Amino acid sequence: MSWQLTEEHLTDLARGAAVLGTGGGGDPYVGRLLVQQAIREFGPITVLDPSEVDDEALVIPTAQMGAPTVVHEKIPSGEEPVTALRALESHLGARASATMPIECGGINSMIPLVVAARTGLPVVDADGMGRAFPELQMETFGVYGVTGSPMAVAGERGETAVIDAGTDNARMEWLARGVTIRLGGVAHIAEYSMSGADVKRTAIPRTLTLAHTVGRAIREARERNADPVAHLGEVLKGTLYGNLRVLFRGKVSDVERRTEAGFARGRAAAVSFDGEHKLDLEFQNENLVALVDGEVRCVVPDLVCVLDAEQAEPITTESLRYGQRITVVGISTPDLMRTPEALAVFGPKAFGLPHDFRPVEELN
Question: Which Pfam families does the entry link to (predicted)?
Answer without folding.
Answer: S-Me-THD_C, S-Me-THD_N
